[in-house]
Amino acid sequence: MSGKMAFVIGARGFVGSNTVRRFLAAGWKVHCFGLPTEHDMLADIRDQIDETEGSVEDTAAMATAMADSDAQVVLNFAAFSAGDGGLAKSGEMDADRAFEINVNGLRRSFDAALEAGVERVLWSSSTTLYGSSAHYSEQPITEAAEPRPQGIYGLTKAMGEQLSVCYRDRHGLETVAVRLPLVFGPGLWYRGAAAALMEMLQAARPGARHVLIGPEDMLDLMYVPDCAEAFLAIAAHSGAVPERLNINGFTTRYPDLGRAAEAAMPGFEVEFAGRPAPVVYPLISTGLLEAEIGFRPRFGVEDAVRDFIERKRRGDA
């Protein structure tokens, strides 16, 4: 796939920036589209990317930039974010803007791709569209499970997936909703659902003690390098791609994350304090992703924790 062009909307966010770096490492060219951000996570590699400043609220600007870039695939990571509280909290704070960016902005990106002649659009959906695990008697669940979102952010993703299917059926645009679980790793600056985990990882050093507060339930987690790798695998896939795909790294519990941190950093002690999660999400199956795309994550819980702590030691996290 060397020499292919990816057009990345929302490239300076956490997942978007990690994905841009992975595409560049794989030999792709990247054109970034979006608004300036307080946390520019691509500032150090600006000379390696092309970029256009613009908003997902402007279909014409996106279409022009896509056409000029000669992109083969579009990746849309744009989502409404206010402050450092995370995407779910932002949606509850300002539902109007969440719907405008997450739903209408997504629709406009599809329209722009049609106008520019780009045939494949990957976009970041979320497993938060599933809602409470109480709605799903058999787990892990597949992509066929009915969405039951309980928050505005999850609701915007469920609505986005309806748009995505409509554009497939009506226009033949190969839209792919990539359902992300909770993602953590280098560059995660905002305080969302992974804040407690990130605080523990940042605190890891010999002789330190840390109290990890979190739910005791099993949960799906993905280390961001694996998330970026999954987007690359889907974008580069030579055959047809399913309309929606669950992606995941591993399933674990917060106490196991604490033990993994202790093992990765001798002399670091982690005490776990249980606190119920506001929503316990169902565990997901990634069988479709493995069967259709052939992707399997590289990082398990111990590998991911060890890699992050090593990056932090080097100053890379």
What would you say about this model in short?
39% of the residues lie in helices and 19% in strands.
Order of helices and strands: EHEEHEHHEHEEHEEHEEHEHH
Return the CATH topology.
Answer: Rossmann fold
Q: Summarize model confidence as the mean pLDDT.
A: 96
Strands side by side in the biggest sheet: 3-2-1-4-5-6-10
Class from helix and strand fractions: alpha/beta
Domains (count): 1
Helical coverage, percent range: 25-40%
Unreliable sequence segments: none
Say how many strands there are. 12
Beta fraction = 15-25%
What is the makeup of the main sheet? 7 strands, parallel
CA radius of gyration: 19 Å
Shape designation: globular
CATH superfamily: NAD(P)-binding Rossmann-like Domain
Do you know the CATH architecture? 3-Layer(aba) Sandwich
CATH C-level class is: Alpha Beta
Distance between the termini: 29 Å
Can you count the helices?
10
